[in-house]
Specification:
alpha/beta; TIM Barrel; 8-stranded parallel beta barrel; 12 helices; globular; binds ligand LARABZUK; EC 4.1.1.48; Aldolase_TIM; amino-acid biosynthesis; RibuloseP-bd_barrel; phosphoribosylanthranilate isomerase activity
């Protein structure tokens, strides 16, 4: 692990240590959202009435800088839900992605589909926080965590009733999959170089352990890609920038879904 990912993870440890001083785990456990029963993204991805798209609210990124600073969580996420997203992904990292816990809490209040807390989880405290702000799923990035850390964090999340998406970028990282992980994502973006290789998902699909829900992540920018990925066995498609870079992400999402439905009907 090196470069931007090293920087993000180092900052995450500092950030989490500071937040622990501000709000205890006991306090987070008292919130009403912490007591809510999470939704299952794995189940929503099986619903044929939905698109399989996990639509991401992403204002900025290390690879692209500012993507969209104009739109609101309300306008974008409610449109994604209305037009058939199977789930939402909300960036909660502030420094590198311009997101926040407040973004996720707003999305939770407005949408009744599963929400992934998109962040760099290195500590159990962030998983308690994820539940307390209304997330249903947490992300664990194999590149940032040892096999033991993945196992421990996934078990902790599972015990809180949250689902776990383990993100991999290479075949060897699949050794980190455990029973407490329901969803395995292949990130087409190399997080150390930002290079996107769309073929990465299709190459790794056959190696993902049976019984796990397969998600393709990053660099998906057209409906033909979804059709190819479905044929390769993927049930979920995590898409951020393709919609967020537009002045009107809701309209871009609606048009994409409509084109996908027309192609799928043929
Ligand atoms: O997007 C980045 O630049 C990035 C850099 C470093 C770590 C993570 C990064 N992205 C997180 C993601 O995985 C994507 O937001 C997600 O898969 C959606 O990708 P896209 O559709 O390409 O926006």
């Amino acid at each position: 692990m090196k470069n931007i990912l090293t920087e993000i993870v180092a900052h995450k440890h500092v950030e989490v240590a500071a937040r622990k001083q501000q709000r205890s785990v006991e306090e987070l456990e008292q919130t009403s959202l912490f007591k809510r029963t999470p939704l299952s993204l794995a189940q929503f991805l099986q619903d044929p009435a939905k698109t399989g798209i996990i639509a991401e609210f992403k204002r900025r990124s290390p690879s692209k800088g500012l993507i969209n600073g104009e739109v609101t969580v309300q306008d974008v996420t409610t449109a994604y839900t209305r037009y058939g997203a199977s789930g939402l992904s909300v960036l909660t990292d502030e420094k590198f992605f311009g997101g926040s816990s407040d973004d996720l809490q707003q999305a939770r209040a407005l949408n009744n589909i599963p929400i992934l807390r998109k962040d760099f989880i290195v500590d159990e405290y962030q998983i308690v926080e994820a539940k307390a702000i209304g997330a249903d799923v947490i992300l664990l990035i194999a590149e940032c965590l040892t096999k033991d850390e993945v196992a421990q964090l996934a078990k902790f999340a599972h015990n809180l009733g949250l689902e776990v998406l383990l993100e991999v970028h290479s075949g060897d990282q699949l050794e980190k999959v455990t029973d407490h992980i329901q969803l395995v994502g292949v990130n087409n973006r190399d997080l150390t170089t930002f290079r996107v290789d769309f073929n990465r998902s299709c190459e790794l699909a056959p190696q993902i352990p049976a019984g796990k829900c397969k998600i393709a992540e990053s660099g998906i920018s057209n409906t033909d890609a979804i059709i190819t990925l479905k044929q390769a066995g993927f049930q979920g498609f995590l898409i951020g920038e393709h919609f967020m870079k537009e002045a009107n992400p809701p309209r871009a999402f609606e048009q994409f879904v409509s084109e996908l439905a027309n192609k799928s009907a043929k």
